[in-house]
Recover the amino acids of this structure.
């Protein structure tokens, strides 16, 4: 029973991270119909900056909490600037061009990864927990850091649902993702909506990096691993579907948790792939994809 | 393929092989072999774009070919030629199974599943002890009679395979592939099995990638799982994009240029990631049709009469 609870909590925690990650991928695909491979770079940049800036701020007389807040804000801000640059000098010209945008994003991945390796070095960095200590849930010890991760995922998923369902911008994004030309005829400023969607997605990617940094070894290539899983989650759920991304992410989280415990991590990765292939045989557009 | 193209490409291949013959120095000979292999992988990638799909599993097929060749040669002790063909056939076989399942999906789904496939296949090598696990396989040597001249062999074989792919592209089958890319419903309406045709196209691409993998194993003598990550597909895509994908010369030109430039950039101590990244980004933003497209554009915009266009097109081949 205790093992089961432990595994479910681990699965939820891994799944929660993929949820934040894949919601961003999904949003970009929805509004711009592009596959952004450089999404992992927002994750990496934020995590790396926190790993470098937290000790810097903490060493300059800031309190633990203050130093973290500053480091996280700086990391997310830097990612947003990066996202804006990528949009303005790249993806803007490749909207609705799947192959072109994909290749461009691969170019960005290589370029940014090279720069990060050059400036941050290849060495693995670690980040201390935001909040030390743990709590006991059903006889299982769970660190606060993991709870924060699950909490952040819940809050931002709910927030995104609310934005997409109830705000003018959110409704415009949904309209654009269904038929951007019809949306433009209705007077929706497509370019502005595309940029907004891209930046929200960037923010989600950076946020995933921020909450994950203390739980993972941070290195310039850390984003790539999460990116693969995030994409598999999106394919499984169906590109462009928000509930699909959540289901796909949780599914992968649970396979990783259970497969990793009863077998080993690389078995879990192979199992995920085989199961996704089977799912795609039945539903070529993902579980929740339309058509 | 018309006679002029055929003779032209044979002459080009003969010149390339003669050049390879002249290279005595180990590094430049290896560099030329890598260029030929890169051109072959990029051409294989281009071949699958005929059905309108971006085959990111190409790196996996190169790896499967390399491992199958290495296994056949060092462990089963099969002759050189047989083990090289084994590499291609094994990759093609996996390509049929992979394509049968995944080609029901299209566009982004196919691309991403190919990417995931590459990473999973790489994980599988590390778990099989007989393949050397994480450290890979060693001692994959070409036979004595080719030892000195393996570059010539690699260039020749790559050239012949690229020409064969072009011949298929120009044949009836190639027209079916392009028809599927343009509108698969029309192809379906004349009674062609679209799904199996796509699987065939992917498998031919996988076979070529597998042979390229076998050549890689024989040129480098050592292979490890890290050699066949998705970066390999990415680089192949860079060759294809920079060279231009509208013409079979494109991937060859892109491969020769980028492999050479990256070897130069390595000698300056620059990272090849940054180099390939910038090459891809600049190409896409400045010349979306690649080098070859740019040349074509310059030529056609200078002289617009159709006869001149005809002659320039022929002289390029």
């Amino acid at each position: 029973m205790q093992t089961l609870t432990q595994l479910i909590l681990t699965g939820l925690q891994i799944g929660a991270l993929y949820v934040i990650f894949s919601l961003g991928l999904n949003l970009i695909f929805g509004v711009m119909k592009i596959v952004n491979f450089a999404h992992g770079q927002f994750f990496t940049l934020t995590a790396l900056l926190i790993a470098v800036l937290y000790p810097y701020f903490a060493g300059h007389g800031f309190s633990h909490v203050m130093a973290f807040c500053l480091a996280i804000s700086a990391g997310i801000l830097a990612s947003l600037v990066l996202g804006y640059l990528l949009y303005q000098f790249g993806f803007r010209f490749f909207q609705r061009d799947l192959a072109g945008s994909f290749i461009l994003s691969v170019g960005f991945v290589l370029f940014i990864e090279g720069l990060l390796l050059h400036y941050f070095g290849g060495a693995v960095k670690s980040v201390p927990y935001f909040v030390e200590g743990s709590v006991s849930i059903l006889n299982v010890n769970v660190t606060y850091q993991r709870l924060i991760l699950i909490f952040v995922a819940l809050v931002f998923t709910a927030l995104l649902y609310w934005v997409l369902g109830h705000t003018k911008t959110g409704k415009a994004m949904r309209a654009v993702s269904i038929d951007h030309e019809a949306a433009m005829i209705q007077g929706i400023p497509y370019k502005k909506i595309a940029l907004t969607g891209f930046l929200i997605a960037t923010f989600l990617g950076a946020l995933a990096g921020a909450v994950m940094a203390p739980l993972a070894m941070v290195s310039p290539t850390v984003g790539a691993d999460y990116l693969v899983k995030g994409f598999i989650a999106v394919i499984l759920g169906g590109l462009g579907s928000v509930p699909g991304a959540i289901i796909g992410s949780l599914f992968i989280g649970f396979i990783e948790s259970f497969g990793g415990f009863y077998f080993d991590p690389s078995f879990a990765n192979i199992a995920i792939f085989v199961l996704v292939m089977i799912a795609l045989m039945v539903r070529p557009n993902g579980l929740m994809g339309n058509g | 393929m018309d006679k002029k193209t055929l003779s032209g490409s044979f002459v080009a291949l003969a010149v390339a092989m003669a050049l390879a013959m002249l290279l005595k120095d180990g590094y430049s000979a290896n560099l030329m072999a890598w260029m030929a292999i890169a051109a072959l992988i990029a051409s294989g990638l281009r071949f699958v774009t005929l059905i309108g799909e971006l085959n990111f599993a190409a790196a996996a097929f190169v790896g499967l070919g390399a491992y199958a060749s290495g296994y056949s040669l060092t462990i089963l002790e099969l002759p050189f030629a047989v083990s090289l063909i084994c590499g291609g056939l094994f990759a093609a076989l996996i390509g049929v199974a992979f394509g049968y399942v995944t080609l029901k999906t299209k566009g982004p789904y196919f691309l991403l599943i190919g990417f995931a496939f590459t990473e999973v296949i790489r994980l599988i090598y590390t778990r099989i002890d007989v393949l050397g696990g994480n450290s890979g396989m060693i001692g994959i040597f070409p036979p004595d009679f080719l030892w000195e001249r393996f570059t010539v062999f690699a260039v020749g074989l790559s050239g012949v395979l690229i020409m064969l792919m072009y011949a298929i592209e120009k044949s009836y089958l190639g027209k079916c592939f392009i028809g599927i890319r343009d509108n698969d419903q029309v192809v379906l309406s004349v009674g062609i099995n679209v799904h199996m045709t796509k699987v065939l196209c992917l498998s031919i691409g996988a076979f070529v990638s597998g042979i390229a993998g076998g050549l890689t194993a024989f040129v480098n003598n050592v292979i490890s799982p890290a050699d066949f990550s998705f970066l390999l597909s990415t680089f192949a895509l860079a060759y294809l994009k920079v060279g231009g994908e509208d013409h079979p010369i494109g991937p060859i030109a892109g491969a020769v240029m980028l492999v050479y430039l990256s070897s130069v950039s390595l000698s300056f101590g620059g990272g090849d990631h940054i180099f390939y990244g910038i090459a891809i980004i600049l190409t896409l933003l400045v010349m979306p049709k690649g080098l070859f497209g740019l040349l074509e554009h310059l030529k056609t915009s200078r002289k617009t009469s159709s006869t001149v266009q005809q002659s320039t097109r022929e002289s390029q081949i």
Remarks:
- The longest strand of chain A covers residues 134-137.
- Residues 31 and 158 of chain A are 19 Å apart (CA to CA).
- The two ends of chain A are 41 Å apart (CA to CA).
